[in-house]
Amino acid sequence: MLNPTHELCSIPMPDQYFGMDDYGKGTPRWCPGCGGHSILASVQRVCKDLQYPPEKTVCVSGIGCSSRFPHYMGTYGFHGLHGRAFPVACGIKFRRPDLNVFAITGDGDCCSIGAGHWVHAIRYNMKMVVLLFDNGIYGLTKKQTSPTSPMGTLSNTHPAGSVLPPINPIQTTLGLANVSFVAQTTDWNSAHLYATIRKAADHPGLAFVRIVQRCPVFMRDLYGDIATNKDELILLSHQNGIDLKPSALQSFKHILEHDPSNIHKAREHAETEDGIPIGLFYQNTSSPRYDLYGAHNRGMNTTDKKWALESLLDQYTIRNN
Ligand code: SF4
Question: Are 136 and 150 a contacting pair, CB within 8 Å?
Fold first, then answer.
């Protein structure tokens, strides 16, 4: 809310301004060089730039290195069960549509045990930002093959190399019913990371962002070189895509024009093996949202809800006469 009668300045000033410190809490216990640090900083910056009140913001996670995220945010948080970030986040959004919801998940959390919830959360399309920290390994439990580990990955579960093709989270999400926003970025390109999360926060529906994340402890070989090799990244660019400053564009060698309203092209780009495409693959701002069907959005108060529930249960009453 603005206060146009501020005494010392004619420029309207906010009654309360939240700084970066308001969104931070504790000391992150991720390893040095872990991609989680830059993702955390970007989310905090987005919250600050959008002036999300910390008490109106909630971060929900499952289990894994990524899922420590809520502990480091000065907002509400829910560090839940493995693979269960989505149902908790959906429940929160359905009952409290006034909250800003971030669902934090990892490749083991989302693409394995949580895959069923992933499918339905995308279909429900409730307004929230989903951040998939994808480092291609189970890091918290010390190096087991994850669903996104590239074939041949040496791990404790596959010491001779993983044998199955990995799930491509972008390709998979683009194939789900009612998908409305799919983007990809990396932890090491801070300008693109920030701009992607910022765009996701503005999306009227579920914004799914896969973040290609480095795990220098257990997957040093996977993305170690990519972070310094400009040949590996392909920037998807469009006027309706991720908004990057011209100076940030200079760090990309390969730029591909892609209209994010074109889901068929998005699927083609998701399949490419020529490099890692980053940017907005797909956006549809008019996909139906299940959170708009909650009682809250029908203007029901507590008495109305109680009456509606009792009327519903009355249908199941067995009468003797
Ligand atoms: Fe990050 Fe890997 Fe360390 Fe986990 S094990 S905190 S993913 S660097």
Answer: yes
